[in-house]
Amino acid sequence: MDNAVYATLGRQSGLLREMQTIANNIANMSTAGFKSETLLFEEHVAALGKSDSLSMAHAAPRDTNLFQGGLTQTGGTFDIAIEGEGFFMIETPEGPRLTRAGNFTANAEGDLVTTQGFAVLDAGGAPVFVPSGAGSIHIGTDGTLSADGQPLGQIGVFMADEQTLRREDGVHFAFEGEPLSADNFRVLQGALEESNVDPVTQIARMIEVQRAYELGASFSEREDERIKSLISTLGR
Questions:
Q1: Where in the chain are the domains?
Q2: pLDDT one-digit tens code per residue, 43-68
Q3: Which of 9, 139, 168, 176 has the highest local Cβ count within 10 Å?
């Protein structure tokens, strides 16, 4: 196969992955706490012989944009947003995970949980407990949770090395090492952080990727016809 075809196939594969990433961003424009992703391309050089080489585009792992989304007032007692740095920590079957999605609720056992039922952890790494029948629930800007004026605990806000964050299950992130307590933040009760996806930017990029993919497909078709024509000519 001609080297140009190899390079084109590598490019087409990367563009397809980027289109999937963009589609996932657009699908999550309304998902609380969602962080948009971009796909990075790197040069991949393949050795062909003693001196020859082939340079191709390689789609590297996705890069997550962690900048803060807009804040929406909901009035929900257990809807919580972080203004500033940090993440909430939750306990999943796979271990602790970080999230910016603060649409929590209290389950039948009195634990503060996510919509998936994962326990929200306090500053010490233990589940946050909300007593049943509590009349007035207040969450302070430092994450302190009080019921009827009595402090019960502090919802944890943590930091982790951004280079080790790995997205899991939409708005949840796995991490490496020990998380640290965040400093520069405010916890806002009755609010949620919106997705940070910019729909205009995503749609514009989708059009660019689609056109680039169509151009590559057109080149592949012409190259296929050229090779067929060459084989037919040499076979006479």
A1: 3-66+197-234, 71-193
A2: 656 565 555 665 656 666 678 899 99
A3: 139
Joined together, the tokens standing for residue 90 give: 């939750």
CA triple 149-155-159, angle to 5 deg: 150
Nearest partner of 129 among 102, 103, 151, judged by Cα: 151
Residue 44 contacts by C-beta under 8 Å, 6 or more apart in sequence? 10, 55, 56, 57, 58
